[in-house]
Amino acid sequence: MTDMNYTTVPGARVGVLMGSASDWSTMKRTAETLTELGVTHECNAISAHRNPDRVMHYCRHAPDRGIRVLICAAGGAAHLAGVVAAHSPLPVLACPIAAWSLDGLDSLLSMVQMPKGVPVATFAIGNAGAINAALFAVQILAGTDEALHARWLAFRAAQSAAVQTLPAS
User: Fold this and answer.
1) What span, in angstroms and rounded, lies between the C-alpha atoms of 22 and 18?
2) How many CA atoms lie within 13 A of 4 on its CB side?
3) Closest among 37, 98, 94 to 69, alpha carbons compared
4) N or C terminus: fewer CB in 10 A for the chain?
5) H/E element, 95
6) Which of 42, 98, 102 is nearest to 71 (CA)?
7) What span, in angstroms and rounded, lies between the C-alpha atoms of 131 and 123?
8) If DSSP codes are grouped into helix, strand and coil, which group holds residue 69?
């Protein structure tokens, strides 16, 4: 832990940030997918609204620690991805969480309506978006990592093969 009270993982290349610990039920799929593909990552619950100084500190120091992609999840107003993008030069991937209202549509709209010049790649609401954000992070990192690129291609091949296999009756 640091003095700003967030978890760091030596060698992590992806930072997974959640606006609340309650987002973990969805974002554990991001962590599982990154682990499956051998990408070291760290996960933290840091609220853009309740912990703005911690968010800023995390974003400013993440590149120095080797983080290359940030994945942000939040529900409701869902400002975390935008705040992170404002404070970091790293690619920011946003995962809308189905929260207490509108089944996540409010989160999606908060994330996807970024002003020009502050890009945030936004994914589907819920589990599919959480998994796809991890896969997109892998694609970004695989461009400069031959071993990860090979794992990514093997994952894609296995996914393709699974589609062609009918379940046993």
Assistant:
1) 8
2) 19
3) 94
4) C
5) strand 92-97
6) 42
7) 9
8) strand
